[in-house]
């Protein structure tokens, strides 16, 4: 598969289920659990990605918060602000190359600097296996 013929991220992205900035830790955890997410982008009121929160981020803080009954923690306190995002018009090959080196399981997908979806590793693998299964070789 060459990069020129690679499907686009927008072809395989999923609907984003972001966490609003300022959400409580409890709301954030409930959001991840209810939507069966391992992580989610955190957005401001203009749908701009300001962070990413993972189950692991929440577990660390929930352990401390539950022990001390600290209910004042918000997602902004635990999220990562160094977000690795991709653009909707990036190719799957480019993203797969990036994923082979970077660790995020899910990338926020941006268009015009606004969140339009997410793309998990599973979707990238689906795209790659589809391309493998439809390889045309010429002799």
């Amino acid at each position: 598969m060459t990069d020129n013929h690679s499907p686009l991220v927008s072809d395989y992205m999923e609907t984003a289920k972001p966490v609003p900035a300022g959400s409580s830790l409890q709301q954030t955890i409930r959001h991840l659990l209810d939507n069966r997410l391992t992580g989610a982008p955190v957005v401001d009121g203009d749908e701009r990605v300001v962070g990413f929160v993972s189950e692991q981020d929440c577990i660390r803080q929930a352990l401390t918060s539950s022990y001390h009954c600290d209910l004042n923690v918000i997602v902004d306190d635990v999220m990562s602000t160094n977000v690795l995002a991709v653009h909707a018009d990036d190719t799957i090959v480019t993203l797969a190359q990036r994923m082979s080196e970077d660790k995020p399981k899910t990338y926020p997908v941006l268009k015009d600097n606004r969140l339009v979806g997410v793309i998990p590793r599973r979707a990238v693998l689906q795209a790659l296996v589809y391309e493998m299964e439809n390889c045309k070789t010429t002799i």
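The chain has a mean pLDDT of 89. The helical segments are 9-12, 25-34, 55-68, 75-78, 92-99, 121-133.
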